[in-house]
Amino acid sequence: MKIGVLTSSRADFGIYKQLLKEISELIDFEIIAFGTHLSKFHGFTIDEIRSEFTVPIHQINTVLANDDVNSIASSYGLTVQKFADFWNNSSFDLVLCLGDRYEMNAALQAGIPYNVKFAHFHGGEESLGAIDNIYRHQITLASQIHFTATKDYYNRVVELIGTSEGVYNVGSIALDKISKLKLLSNDEFRNKYNIPNEDYILVTIHPETKNVDANKKYSLEIYEALKNLGKDYHIVITMPNSDTLGSIYRNAWAELKTVFPNSVTLIENFGAENYYAAMKYSKLLLGNSSSGIIEAASFNKYVINVGDRQKGRIRSSNTLDVDFNFNRIIAKVKEINSLDQYQGDNKYFKENSIQKVINIIKDYDGF
Questions:
Q1: Which residues contact 116 (CB under 8 A, 6 or more apart)?
Q2: Domain edges within the chain
Q3: Helix, strand or coil, per DSSP, at residue 168
Q4: pLDDT of 98-138, one tens digit each?
Q5: How far apart are the first and last CA of the chain?
Q6: Angle formed by the axes of helices 10-23 and 272-281, to 10°?
Q7: What confidence tens digit (pLDDT) does each residue in 138-189 have?
Q8: Residue 73 to residues 18, 124, 135: CA-CA distances in angstroms?
Q9: Phi/psi of residue 4, each to 5°?
Q10: Which residue ranges does the record assign to the UDP-N-acetylglucosamine 2-epimerase domain (predicted)?
């Protein structure tokens, strides 16, 4: 059996990684890297893949330099074109895909005429404030196996495709072994990234891709909030991905770093384990990333989820929602400060999810 693994960004690779380490002893696989993995502007994270795995790695350049609406649409078309050639010259028994990125969807759509068989992780979810919601459901419709993270998402996939065949509720594979990861110590982590020994807020903000025109206003609100919070906390910011108008936030963070050089740390790419270390040692998370919704509860962290990008996703009780208003964001931080450490559950966690996925893949016969 020969497996292909589609990875377009640091985010999906981090989720895959433990699964790939365990599956490598049982099944031959090849990695198909594209999207921001091959962008120096986004950290050239193909190097991280090379450092982790010695399997064949296909590299497909698909990202354009700009992030305006026309460039994102053009990048989608370029990805379809590049993958049409790739699928024409490749053969896999099954190809793994994950999430809801436009690049991921483009790669799958190109594979449909070639009858490529896809297995999709994290289908059935809702993020009503992002156009990724559309891409996710399109990926679901193009896939033959579906690994969902909760029972509600399982039910939605069944509704979308009209059958329960090939649909499995396994939980999020990112969480399966997360408590057993060998992370850097607090001192090692802070020394590696030059983060002072004080409370810090971990910030990850991506553009709102449904209400694109509002991003300028939103960036100003979050800028003002971080400027105020920087008086009491160090601010650690992970840079946004290649969504439409992500440069607005990049420019805001660069200015914030210039104005407050000692209170702000900008990180292009932590890598999966170091991002988890950043979660573990933070005071709280602030932003609109799915990692806050899905993974933060496993580190007993509260999350201030800003805006509508993740609207519709199931939340554990560690998540506090707020709109892009700097006064309300600051108020939520004060609210969290009055709470004890989060000790609740994580709705995305299931025992042995990785082993369940491996067993299903090994038994796959194309239905």
A1: 87, 92, 95, 108
A2: 2-176+350-362, 180-337
A3: strand
A4: 999 999 999 999 999 999 999 999 999 988 877 888 999 99
A5: 15
A6: 110
A7: 999 999 999 999 999 999 999 999 999 999 999 999 999 898 899 999 999 9
A8: 32, 24, 13
A9: -105, 150
A10: 27-362
pTM of the model: 0.91
The residue type at 322: V
Task: Judge contact between 165 and 171, C-beta under 8 A.
Answer: no
Indicate the CATH number of 2-176+350-362 among 3.20.19.10, 3.40.50.720, 3.40.50.2000, 3.90.1010.10: 3.40.50.2000
Arithmetic mean of pLDDT, 224-253: 91
In single-letter form, the type of residue at position 164 comes to: S
Let me know: does 288 contact 336? Beta carbons within 8 Å.
Answer: no
Would 2-176+350-362 and 180-337 be classified into the same CATH topology? yes
Q: How far is it, in rounded angstroms, from Cα 304 to Cα 1?
A: 43
